[in-house]
Structure formats: C-alpha cells, structure tokens
Amino acid sequence: MQPKVKLRKVEYNCQLEDDSSSNSLFMPTVVIFFIALLLSSSSAHSQWLQDLRGSQYNSLTVQYWKAQEINETATSYKTGTPVTNQAQITFSVDRRQINQSVSQDGVKIESNVFSFNPRKQILSKTLRRSTDGIQWSLEKSVYAYKGDLLGMVNSIKLNGELIYFLMVKNDSLGLPIKVEQRSPDSTLMAIEVGIPDYAHNKIIYKLMDASGRTVSTSEGRIAVKKTGNEKYNLHGDCFLYPRNDTPSDQIFCYVEFDYDSNGNWVKKKIYEGEIDSTKNLIKPQLVMEYKRKIKYIK
Predict the structure, then answer these.
(1) Using one digit for the tens of pLDDT, what is the confidence trace for 153-177?
(2) Where are the domains of the chain?
C-alpha cells in the first residue's frame, strides 16, 4: 500500500502548482533548505530570474485561517544521512511583517524578517545567516514595482548603504526575462537573460559577466505542465505528480498528508520514484518529511 501524498514548491521542486496549502516554512534553494536570495556582489553563478518567480508570502503562511505562529521541522533523507532543520514563523498584527528563525541540530542558523504590501508583494527582506551559530552575515533587499511587476531590487547594508542593485525586465506575460546587476555608481556587473519557448514550455537561462561573456547556461520550465498522471486527494491536494527537476525528468513525487481541523496540513512525507502503468510509484524512496504545529489567531 502506497503512502498518501501531496507536495509543494520546495527543496526538490516536486510540485504541481504554487499554492499556499502545499508550502512550507522552508523555502526552496539553498544550503539545505532556503532560498539563496540575490547573493553577494560576486554572484556570477546565481540565477536571479528563477529566484524572482513565485510568491514568498504564500511560502511562509498557511492556506486556511490566520496563523499566529507556525513551528515546523523538516528532515531531508536525500543524501542518506538524515538532516533536520527547525523553523519558527510569527506574524505581525496586520500580517504585513513575518519573522522567521531557523535552527539546525539545535543551533540557530537563520533569523529573517520579511515585509509585504497589502497585495502580498514583498517589499523587503532582511537575512541574517550563520553556518556555526557564531559568525553571522547580514543582507537586506528592498523591492520596487512598476504596477504589478517587479522592477528593481536594491541590496543594502543595514545602515542603508547600497551594495548593488538589480534592474528587472519582464515580458508581456509578466515573466522576468532579464536582470542587470549594477554597482552603486551604476557600473554593470553581470547580466542574466531568460529566453522563453512558450510552445515547448521551456526557458533557457544565460548568465553573463559585464563584458557579455557567457558564464553559465541552464534550462528550466516556464510552468509545470500536467501530464495526466497526477492524482488528487479529497482536500484538493495533488499527491502524485512529476518532480519536474528538468524538462526530461521522469521521476514522480508521492506525498502523504495529515491535516488539522482547519484543513491545513500538519504532517507530510514526500517520496520519489518512477511510476508503473497503473500510476503507482515503483520502489518509493522517502526524501523529505515535514511536521508542523500551527497556532491560530482566536
């Protein structure tokens, strides 16, 4: 009997949709579970265009009712040796500021503050990170919009001094397709472009240095395309779907859920494997497990 399942947009990109019900306090990318945001001025290997997509607000909250505090434990089995992180999130009264702290093996490694406008678009994030709980790095990013679309991101020191800024260009469908990284005096430092192929649901990312020399190239999906193999539970959550790490990825994710009385998940296990002709996972491998306690506003 297979585990029951569902997924979200996270560490392993096993997701069908970017919906808040499947999100976790641990947001994608990074040293172990977190987004490597806008990095430092030497970010010749980063991919801003991928990081600038998606809703960070939904990634930090729950789908139903208003949470006052969320405590989540995430355990990764991907490397064979289990690695566990703990995250705590608290919300301001107007829910426009979210505080997040992250610990690994009992040692705090992140302390972050996110602020949002009434439309739930991110306005700023202050990231405080450590690898040993002793030495900390600080970075703050401030976001500016042109209408509904992101136009600029300023990376600043906590004293307000500008480190660098990103100029963002979007296509007619709102997809970010170009980022220019510039120094405080507007000197070009790096460029990343995205070349979308909507007909084939693909996008090519090219990272270039200031001279226009290509540093790296990668390929991704514009959107997660349904294959007809997806399965949904009674909560409307997709518990079987393609992993979508790459356009040619054949691995599927199977998610097992437990829910609270408000309809939000409180336990989730994610398995990976190929599927057979009956759409069942072959030799499912547990890769992630999440547990969370949600305190609601009364």
Answers:
(1) 999 987 889 999 999 999 999 899 9
(2) 20-296
